[in-house]
Write a structure and sequence with these properties.
Elements (H helix, E strand, L loop, with lengths): L4 H5 L6 H12 L3 H22 L1 H4 L2 E11 L2 E12 L2 E9 L9 H14 L6 E4 L6 H9 L3 E6 L5 H6 L5 H10 L7 E7 L2 E14 L2 E8 L4 H9 L3 H10 L5 H17 L1
Parallel strand pairs: 1-4, 4-5
Antiparallel strand pairs: 1-2, 2-3, 5-8, 6-7, 7-8
Length: 267
Amino acid sequence: MKDYLPQLLENEQTVSCSHYKRLIRFFNISDSANSKLIDCILGMIYKTLSEKVRAAFRKYLILDGTQWKRGEKCVHLLTLCIVYHGIAIPIYWHQLNKKGGHSSEEDRQKLFTEACERYQLSGKILLADREFIGEKWLSFLVSKKIDFIIRMSKTCYKKPISESLGFVYSKLEKMALKAKKTKKSVIKQFQMKDNTYSVVIVKNDKDDPLEPLMYFISTLQDKTEILDGYRIRWQIEICFKHLKSNGFNLEDLIRAANRFVKILKSV
């Protein structure tokens, strides 16, 4: 690394030992300075990509959690990605102080509040799985002008769906079951608190007898857009797989980085 610094600094007259000391100082920066550095790097990535390809970059966010063990320590990250040309790229995350289980509504709101301070996220569409449900959480996203497509369990929001104008919940399920062979979906707009949402029910692609139908809640009103959009959510699982085990092992990287810092400090 020290041999490349003269090119970056555009000063070929400097000596390598001074660059070596500069790198040591860099790796010894405080946690607060390190956090600011990460923020700057993430902001630069986001800005660069969004300016280059606005149409491809503007649409989807994905939220999910991932965890693994580092020795005896459990690392649990709530991670927000943005989709760029079909690839999920992490742009913000929180370390959750829990060994397992799901994030709370407070965890998600805190992450999004901080992320919105750094990025322009309004107008984008959030994709998330069944754990990311809750009336306050959905209202929070609406207040931030973030649309969403979230899968939900069959027991969610039955009452407000049935009480809204149109078919009751059980009728929607029967209609979706009848349409299984043609893979058609049913959609209904309903009111919950002061917001309008869509519920979409469709046949499960996995043909699971225990879960024959899939249920989605969204702020969008086009069922094709909702179903096509949700399929992109899987990209965050691919991202996690690459980070942890698919030729780029995050745990090995952390161990290697720690060894490297120890070596720097010892010289």
